[in-house]
Amino acid sequence: MSLDLAQRRCEPCEGGVEPLRADQSSTLMDALHGDWSISDDGLKIVRTFNFPAYSRTLGFANAVAWVAIAEGHHPVLTVSYGSCVVSYTTHVINGLSDSDFICAAKIDRLAADSN
User: Fold this and answer.
1) Architecture of the CATH domain 2-9+17-113
2) I need a labelling partner for 72 at 20 to 30 A (CA). Which of 10, 12, 38, 107 fits?
């Protein structure tokens, strides 16, 4: 199912819609790599990606940025020497949307392709 999410496109969210319910988020989590987690408050999904060198970390972060620009949906990236933490939420609805999971699936595909 992750591949199905990765092939979808994000839809712009300008508010006025409800965030995903916990059961909806849980179902979509099943379509992602097992390293993703939902924050305790249920407002974001997070995954840490580890790399053997800073250059690989930066390359990955730039690839994530490219996905963000192409999809119009932007994560919070925390880059350090050997890791990049990717966090998605839909700020305008103060919670999770389909777009968060679509982008996460695209990032999963990036990570799989980089190994």
Assistant:
1) 2-Layer Sandwich (3.30)
2) 38
